[in-house]
């Protein structure tokens, strides 16, 4: 039986980072897309970001895409939510910074938990797998057919983390007998809504994961099950790195004023860059 790991109010928490993204907005495959190019403008090694619930305009996501571009990857951040991402105001007005979550009273935690059904519930129905996966698969196919593209990676965060894992399953056959979706390597940061073992048993492409040891959505028991599942895949390159004392969302929304949290976020970015440098070569 598959165990589904959900989402919580911590998916709506974190810090908006300062900085000016250096890429551009365009339309790719019918979707509004932020594009950040490497210095040589080569798209041979392309990476597709699958964002969290705050979407492709979230400054943190774009700034991180710029980091990947500086490392030599042609980076796409598509609007898989089609203009319906959750507003960034939730970060500043409703939820406290990530680390503050651990010091909240029971009353405050209950208050924050109430956000889940009223905010995330309807949104998740609108952006369920039957709607979102065809968009993601289609975008991967569009990039695959773009002249100059050699290999493709997918990196996902929170909501998008699960879809990065699904892309690591490899190509599926559509109802018309066509190959759809599937990347050459994937990186999932603190994924939510994963089904264990169902989402991991079909993994056939190199998969890296970054998980916090205090992630409320992936407890250590669940992480252990995932580790056991992946350990059996001796023919599939994989890694699961655990970040001590980090909570859900740390790789994208950590507080830069904390040296410890900034270090964890920087290391998670480097983890992805090193993974793709190896498996998109």
From TrEMBL:
Domain Dienelactone hydrolase residue range list: 32-280
GO MF term list: hydrolase activity
One Pfam family this sequence matches: DLH
Protein name stated in the entry: Dienelactone hydrolase domain-containing protein
Species this protein is from: Alectoria fallacina
Organism classification: Eukaryota, Fungi, Dikarya, Ascomycota, Pezizomycotina
């Amino acid at each position: 039986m598959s165990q589904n790991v959900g989402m919580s109010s911590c998916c709506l928490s974190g810090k908006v980072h300062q900085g000016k993204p250096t890429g551009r907005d365009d339309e790719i495959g019918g979707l509004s897309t932020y594009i950040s190019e490497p210095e040589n403008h080569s798209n041979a090694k392309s990476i597709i970001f699958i964002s969290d619930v705050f979407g492709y305009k979230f400054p943190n996501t774009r700034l991180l895409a710029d980091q990947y571009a500086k490392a030599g990857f042609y980076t796409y951040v598509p609007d898989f939510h089609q203009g319906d991402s959750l507003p960034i105001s939730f970060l500043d007005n409703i939820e406290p910074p990530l680390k503050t979550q651990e010091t909240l009273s029971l009353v405050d935690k209950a208050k924050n938990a109430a956000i889940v059904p009223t905010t995330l519930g309807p949104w998740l129905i609108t952006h369920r797998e039957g709607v979102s996966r065809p968009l993601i698969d289609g975008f991967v196919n569009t990039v695959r057919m773009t002249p100059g593209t050699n290999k493709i990676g997918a990196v996902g965060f929170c909501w998008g983390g699960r879809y990065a894992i699904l892309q690591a399953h490899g190509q599926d056959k559509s109802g018309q007998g066509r190959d759809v979706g599937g990347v050459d390597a994937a990186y999932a940061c603190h994924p939510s809504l994963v089904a264990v073992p169902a989402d991991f048993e079909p993994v056939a492409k190199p998969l890296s994961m970054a998980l916090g040891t205090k992630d409320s959505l992936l407890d250590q028991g669940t992480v252990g099950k995932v580790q056991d599942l992946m350990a059996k895949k001796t023919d599939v390159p994989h890694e699961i790195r655990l970040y001590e004392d980090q909570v859900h969302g740390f790789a994208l929304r950590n507080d830069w004023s904390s040296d410890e949290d900034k270090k964890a976020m920087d290391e998670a970015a480097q983890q992805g860059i090193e993974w793709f440098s190896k498996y998109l070569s």
